[in-house]
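BUG: 3D viewer hangs when loading the predicted structure for this chain

Environment: internal workstation, default settings.
Expected: structure renders.
Actual: progress bar stalls at 90%.

Input used:
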Amino acid sequence: MTEHDTQPTPERTPRTTGEDAGPGTARPEGRHDNGAHVSTGDETAGTHDTGIPELVIISGMSGAGRSTAAKCLEDLGWFVVDNLPPALIPTMVELGARSQGNVARIAVVVDVRGRRFFDNLRESLADLDSRGVTRRIVFLESSDEALVRRFESVRRPHPLQGDGRIVDGIDAERELLRELRGDADLVIDTSSLNVHELRAKMDAQFAGDEEPELRATVMSFGFKYGLPVDADLVVDMRFLPNPHWVPELRPYSGLNEEVSAYVLNQPGAKEFLDRYAELLQLIAAGYRREGKRYVTVAVGCTGGKHRSVAMSEKLAARLAAEGVETVVVHRDMGRE
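Structure tokens produced before the viewer hung:
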């Protein structure tokens, strides 16, 4: 990650229920960067009553920000080990358990160098599961274009490119990491994030003292800018009339009350919101049963300014009312 990898700053709005007083309570609306509204909240991570440390495994594409994510956890008080061979992860957890509570949270950064990586990692994860260790996998993702730009900016080869090009190394690594990405509890796409924005995302997930049952990110986006690669669920708002074609509404975003009312009063809008919120309740219950702690719902329209923004806000409010700790990110608002 480099600090000059700038894109319009996504909007983030935390949603919490009234029972979430304290670490999860939303802060007032914040600053404006590049025309985009930014709000942050104090979200929480878990602690343990036993001597077994909490474990986070950080992996993902080279150049996607693993070191930045690890440094963030280190600043939050985690014991961080970089480039630890997967086979040694259970040993590190055992040493932490012997520390009499001095090492309660361990973060391990692992990268891929060959096929044996996955065999060792699977064995280690199975060992941890048998011991009842709470562990999460954070996967850092990024587009090929962003990764090439970052490697070229520091004039370093990709660790897997060999005698080929940077893109060859990226392709090889992406294929090797495909299975791990599918098993990840949290996927963060850093393609359009700078260092500070990635740190904000990590802070939002790990800065607190309690871990909610399920965290949701509701992300508005514009289809003309591409699908979010880290979305678990995608829904299309282009079936509703576009406020862009209403002259008095065009300059405003879906955060504007008049724009929001226009969107929600269209035929089928409220019915969609009711039914999709019910569907998400069903999905959220299944995620909890399967131990999945993070879900990203992407809500799209043409440009990511009006319909998707308004519906994302309403949908996030519904999720928060159901006890799901929710953050809203307006990815493309301000890009037009």
